[in-house]
Amino acid sequence: MKTTFTLLCAALLALPALAQEVPPPLPESFDEPILPSEPTLIPDEPAPAPQTYIPDTEPSSIDEPLDPRPEPKFSETQASIEEMKTRVKLREARTKAERDPAVQEAKARSKAANTFVAKRAALGVYYDRLFMRMKSIDGSIRERVDTAHAQYRRNLLQPRINAEDAAIVDANGAPASTTQ
């Protein structure tokens, strides 16, 4: 049984080899040229010209822009210089605003607060006074000051703490009396 199977497999593997065509015999003399006698490199008829899809216009109208206004040139270097100037203005305004006695008093109250809720409320008052003073010192940075003020106020929020669970405080950050 094993030998029959082996012979059958060998016969099946040999069939494709027998079915292949025999290559043509080589010429006996190499005097006969294998390639055509004269190759034609240049065709007898010229190739047709490619079609153009560009409408006929005068060359001067192609070069002119449709919008006569010049495009503003954007320079990353100039943008970074402007950003640095704005940062310097912000730092100077903050330094001057922190020297204000009302701002210093609000900061001292926030540091002296006893509870987290009172500290957040006092910091809110401090940020309000600080950023209001910064806007009054330099009005050219108003948008940046408003953005920073909103960000500082958002950081004070505690969305996961219920208002009922937190102690009630007044606008100055001092605990308000719950009895009336």
Number of beta-strand segments: 0
Instruction: Note the gap between the termini.
Output: 108 Å
Largest sheet: none
| Helix share bin | 40-55%
Mean pLDDT value: 77
Query: What percentage of the residues does DSSP assign to strands (E)?
Result: under 5%
Class of secondary structure makeup:
mainly alpha
Outline type: elongated
Number of helices: 6
Tell me the Rg in angstroms: 44 Å
Poorly predicted sequence stretches spanning 5 or more consecutive residues: none
Secondary-structure element order, as H and E? HHHHHH
Topology record:
Elements: H1 2-19, H2 59-63, H3 76-98, H4 101-112, H5 116-137, H6 142-156
Q: How would you describe this structure to a colleague?
A:
- It is a single chain.
- By secondary structure, this protein is mainly α.
- It has a domain at 82-156.
- The protein has helices at residues 2-19, 59-63, 76-98, 101-112, 116-137, 142-156.
- The longest helix is centred in the middle third of the chain and has 23 residues, at 76-98.
- The mean pLDDT is 77.
Please tag this protein with its features.
180 residues; mainly alpha; 6 helices; 53% helix; elongated
